[in-house]
Amino acid sequence: MSARHRYGAVIARSSTGPPLREGHFISRLKTFGRGPDLLLVVAATWSIPWLSGRIAGSLSPITDAIDPAQVFAYVSVHHVCQLLLTLVLMKAFVGTQLADWGFNLHDGRRSLRITAWFCLIYLGPVFLVNVLPNLMAGEAPGFDHPLTATNIGGQLGFQFLLSGLCEEPLFRGFVITFLAQSWTGRIRVGRGTISSAALWATLFFMLAHAQISLVPFSFEASLPQQIWALGLGLYYAVVFEKTRSLLGPILSHGYSNGVIFVVLYAWALLAR
């Protein structure tokens, strides 16, 4: 996937009022009903990334000069714009604070403990999907850009620091918090349950990792990437619901993207 189509989040310390409990959402959010709420979320999750792309595209002379191989500069600007527009959207709901949308350190120890376990367990899928096929083929991973210090540093910086930082506020913080006001149902999965709002958030997260055009209409998606987005999207949503904080999803998201590039870059450099 090209750098201009990668998607890949901010931790704010603010928190006022009583601590948030698991499953508790802000009751002062205005709901328009299940259908209108869903349409608003569809509009937000489509228009914010699209508008961010237009802004980043207008700055392409600058980003291309900084990053001729188009590895990290454009996508970084895109994601920063996406984060800023998401914050504007959240602040448009009068009476709410960013802490209400997940920008808090509530249940921080639990978030860090969950993230630590995720970082350890996630190495298994990374090996099976990103390392083992190349090992079996007897070849080192290839990249569509030169392995310079600037490209590697820029790529890792974006993946670890910006990918989760700029996506989680929109796809978990906004979508789940807003839809939870009208989509109140929960679906049992094994011993636990997951909310309808979390399932919608996961679907929109998957669609963000597909190429969709409205005029003319077209839809292109990589099945492996969609499966990856499904699994990670559900995990991020569950962690957000359990902690009511974006801390865990942001850290896990950045790690899940960054560790893959660390492994592949290291392998490619050692194989030279």
Structural features, described:
The model is unreliable at 1-23 (pLDDT under 50). The strands form 2 sheets. A two-stranded antiparallel ribbon has the order 1-2. A two-stranded antiparallel ribbon has the order 3-4. It is globular. The longest helix is centred in the middle third of the chain and has 31 residues, at 149-179. It starts with 33 loop residues before the first helix and ends with a helix. The chain has one domain (27-270). Helix 1 (34-58) packs antiparallel against helix 3 (73-91) and helix 3 (73-91) runs parallel beside helix 5. The protein contains 8 helices and 4 strands; from the N terminus they run αααααββαββαα. The protein has helices spanning 34-58, 60-66, 73-91, 108-137, 149-179, 196-208, 223-243, 247-270; strands at 186-189, 192-195, 211-214, 217-220. The chain is mainly alpha-helical and 272 residues long.
